[in-house]
Amino acid sequence: MLNRRMLLGAGPALLAGAAHAQGAMHFATPYPETNYVGRNNRQFVDDLRNASGGEVQVQLYPNASLLPLPQIKRGVQTGQIQIGEVLLNAYGNEDPFLEVDGIARLVHNWEEARRLARLSRPFIEARLQRQGMTMLYQIPWPPTGFFSNMPLNNVDALRGTRMRTYSASSNRFAALVGATPALVQIPEVPQAFATNVINLLITSAAAAVDLQVWDFAKIFTPVDFAFNCNGVFMSRRALNALSAAQQQAVREQAAQAEARGWDWAAEATRTQSLALAQHGMEVSPPSPELLAGMSEVSQRLTEEWLTRAGADGRELLQQFRPA
Q1: Angle at which helices 288-320 and 168-176 cross, to 10°
Q2: Contacts from 69-74 at CB under 8 Å and sequence distance 24+?
Q3: Quick one: which of 131, 141, 117, 127 has its CA closest to 316?
Q4: Domain 144-226+274-320 is classified in which CATH homologous superfamily?
Q5: pLDDT tens digit string along 181-217?
Q6: Distance of CA 296 to the CA centre of its chain
Q7: Which CATH architecture has domain 4-140+227-269?
Q8: Would you tell me the crossing angle of helices 244-278 and 36-51 to the nearest 10 degrees?
């Protein structure tokens, strides 16, 4: 097996040749195999191998063991790796349209989240196609909420906090409510809390359990901030190099992974919130005042997003919110 140092130092042609020689494509993800996202990826890889009669082999590299998150998308674009996974709205600085599922309180429940993902999918696929990539599957995280050591009864309680953010859109939310944004990757969150870089965390219950967030935060306020989606995508060149039957196997197993991932995300929303409570965290339902204040901020964020996302953004929101 190629090690990380060899891969990072290799050029795209060498890596493609090495992958072919080994009979396996490389799939890089920043997420661990211990949560449902990682388990879903593992099952996709295993099911694809079985469905293709062992002809399509994919080596999964979880937990950023091959490439760090900021390099994964570029790695697929350049052919350094064949498959990658990223949080789509983290690339809003590259293309504002990708921020849509990260707009705070744009969607309020799973039904709306599924509809937004379905409607936005063609626009996202077109963008990936222009960059030489194909979307395989897209699955959500449980809705994000606030993790803190103080009650958050309204948006004024967010003012002056040092808020962990993960995207351009969440940075803007922090600025609008008077918080100081700090772009911190998930593995770095415990240290950021310990060193007082942040004192308020936005993340999902699933990621919080991975972090053992109860070690540094006491209150979870599930505001359904956003239903952020990961995208798993493949080099179009690598996909086209497969036979027609192999390509069909990839698409079929990707469709199953997407359906499974949505089901598992909804289940994780329930079970991971229970796990937080079992570890002594206070799960505090958001007050009407907090949700109302967030809705006002959401309207501002949506208007700003429309000015950046252009015609595609307007078309999407007209489909999503025809009224």
Answers
A1: 140
A2: 69/30, 69/185, 72/28, 72/29, 72/30, 73/233
A3: 117
A4: Bacterial extracellular solute-binding protein, family 7 (3.40.190.170)
A5: 999 988 899 999 999 999 999 999 988 998 999 999 9
A6: 25
A7: 3-Layer(aba) Sandwich (3.40)
A8: 160
